[in-house]
Amino acid sequence: MTELSLCTRESFEAVMQKYSDMVYRLALSRTGNPADADDIFQEVFLRYIKADKTYNDEEHRKAWLIKITINCTKSFLTSAWNRHRDFAEADENTGACDKRLSDIETKSEVYGAVLKLPVKYRTVIHLFYYEDMSVAQIAKATGAGESAVKSQLSRARAMLKELLEGVEFDVP
């Protein structure tokens, strides 16, 4: 594996390769739509290039990308265009097949239930379980307090339990 430079312009391709799946999956978990996730994905990496900054370490770079992804999806979800668009048209794209989703198995009952959660709960569940972030890291990335993150995780788990009640799973 190539060594990543901590300077933006020197390592863009390596950063894209390393973090593209994470950014896309987080955008998808927040928007619930592959086309919207693609748009946010592009915006995040455009901002990454424009920022042209030096990072303290890889953890700092990852946290920055997560924060920018959350901010971009927040802006997108609250935009006037998104509030007034035809969601029947947007829903046509939700079944689109994408290799980036294979890791999180979007066809599974669990991920389908995660996508039914409100955005703030989807975000903490995704970061905790799919990106293996700690409560402290999630709090830092989202700008919420640790107690708020713990509360959101607890509520999200309760909602998932209710959504998945009666679903049978194949246990290997």
In short:
The chain has helices at 12-31, 34-51, 58-78, 80-84, 87-91, 109-116, 119-130, 135-142, 146-163. It has 172 residues and is an all-alpha fold. It folds into two domains: 8-96, Rna Polymerase Sigma Factor, Chain: A, CATH 1.10.1740; 108-165, Arc Repressor Mutant, subunit A (Orthogonal Bundle).
Describe the structure.
This protein has 9 helices and no strands. By secondary structure, the protein is an all-alpha fold. It folds into 2 domains: 8-96, Orthogonal Bundle (Rna Polymerase Sigma Factor, Chain: A), CATH 1.10.1740; 108-165, Arc Repressor Mutant, subunit A (Orthogonal Bundle), CATH 1.10.10.10. It is globular. It starts with 11 loop residues before the first helix and ends in a 9-residue tail after the last helix.
Provide the fold topology.
Blueprint: H1 12-31, H2 34-51, H3 58-78, H4 80-84, H5 87-91, H6 109-116, H7 119-130, H8 135-142, H9 146-163
Helix pairs in contact: 1-2, 1-3, 1-7, 2-3, 3-8, 7-9, 8-9
Beta-strand percentage?
Answer: under 5%
Give the strand tally. 0
CATH domain fold name of the largest domain = Rna Polymerase Sigma Factor, Chain: A
The secondary-structure element order is HHHHHHHHH
First and last CA, distance: 32 Å
Helix content: 55-70%
The structural class is: mainly alpha
What top-tier CATH class of the largest domain fits best? Mainly Alpha
Total domain modules: 2
DSSP summary: helix tally: 9
Instruction: Report the oligomer.
Output: single chain
Low-pLDDT stretches are: 88-97, 102-107
The Cα radius of gyration reads: 17 Å
| CATH architecture descriptor of the largest domain | Orthogonal Bundle
Largest sheet: none
Mean pLDDT: 80
* Shape call: globular
